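FAQ: What does a ligand-bound record look like?

Like this one, built around 6-O-phosphono-beta-D-galactopyranose:
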Amino acid sequence: MNLQFPNGFSWGAATSGPQSEGRFNKKHANVFDHWFEVEPESFHNQVGPDVASNFYNSYKEDIKLMKEVGLNSVRTSIQWTRLIDDFETATLNQDGVDFYNNVIDELLANDIKPFINLHHFDLPVELYDKYGGWESKHVVDLFVKFAEQCFKLFGDRVSEWFTHNEPMVVVDGQYLYQFHYPKVVDGKKAVQVAFNLQLASSKAVAKFKEVNTNPDGRIGIILNLTPSYPASDDPADQKAANFANLWFNQIFLDPSILGEYPAELVEILENDGVLFEATKEELAIIKENTIDILGVNFYHPHRVKQPDVSPDSLRFNWMPVKYFDNYDMPGRRMNIDRGWEIYPKALYDIAINVKENYGNIAWFVAENGMGVSNEELFQDETGVVQDDYRINFIKEHLTELHKGIEEGSNCIGYHLWTPIDCWSWSNAYKNRYGFIANNIHTQVKTIKKSGHWFKDVADNNTLEI
Ligand code: BGP
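The answer part, i.e. the structure of the complex:
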């Protein structure tokens, strides 16, 4: 059976500046560059971001490979620490300007539409040290200055812009669960950081509307959506799932698309004494500057049950796990290497949720993918990784997505994480996700079986199942 996708569907893949470029000629360090300098043992096999997949040096060859696997669109991010020389004034680093101009031109010359994101966890460490990073509203304004430079420099050729990738990961990783530097545990700060990230996004949207001259230009945000399913019909489990959806999903979805925070979430945070500080003017900016397009990263759902209030959750001033516990549902399918559940139907649920509750805004799958360790074990005698598991994973997700599109959801594309195996936040090169393998010792890049398969799907705009 053949599943036909809408005309003009974006078939692509996503990466980010800090995970692909390497630190070559980069004047400033971001928080991950710094973390690796001070704590290399926190990174898998002590591999840091210095080389990544060498995109800074090999972007031409890499883009050629991207073309060979059929991509008609590619997302990457502009590194604040590469483009900007002085963060206060947003003066430019010419080498960074030249590099991003070259990348954008090279993508276009290969008929690949650039999707450009501005923040992918890569806050300049200097702004953390001086101001507390996203805890500070001054940093919000500095981000907008950086964004303005990007819109003005590249907006003539870039039409698809995104403010943040997965802001919730900054909140969770840096301020609650200690999986990203600086590993603070502070619920009140976490809530304020979530607000400041939203404010930065909305202010950047406002700036975009002011300076954009590209008639096709549009701007959005990329959110990691994790539909949260209750463990049972028990009202206490349902209540827990409702909170998890508010916390993981609606906290950015609602203000970004509807211009307002969910009243229920605001009430809970207020009652708990951790509501963010926001002025009337800031709330008005959020209200007026909603996005044009939504990117959705989908890897796994959440399974939740009523909380078993443990001393751990009370040890700190506030923790969202006060309201839910993770539920290890018996028999669920897992990607053991990454520890994430595989549940393609959630993508259909997302498609319907966006259609029914968010005005059927244009959206696309901005990341989806399967991280696998030791992929060299799956190479055939010619060195091609036989990643049938990835092909099946993509097929299953596309099938659910297609069902959502058939039912009217306005999904305009599907991007795999990632085109070429790249470096990751502390996982380094443990899990490989790409259509194209990267030997990190030799930097030799080889198309995997999934890359050849995807080219057929993209060229025909059709999935054969
Ligand atoms: C997403 C991030 C990506 C990427 C991906 C895979 O959350 O946006 O940057 O890293 O997850 O995660 P990991 O590499 O940790 O397995």
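Follow-up question: can I read anything off the structure? Yes, for example: Residues 2-464 form a domain with the TIM Barrel fold (CATH 3.20.20.80).
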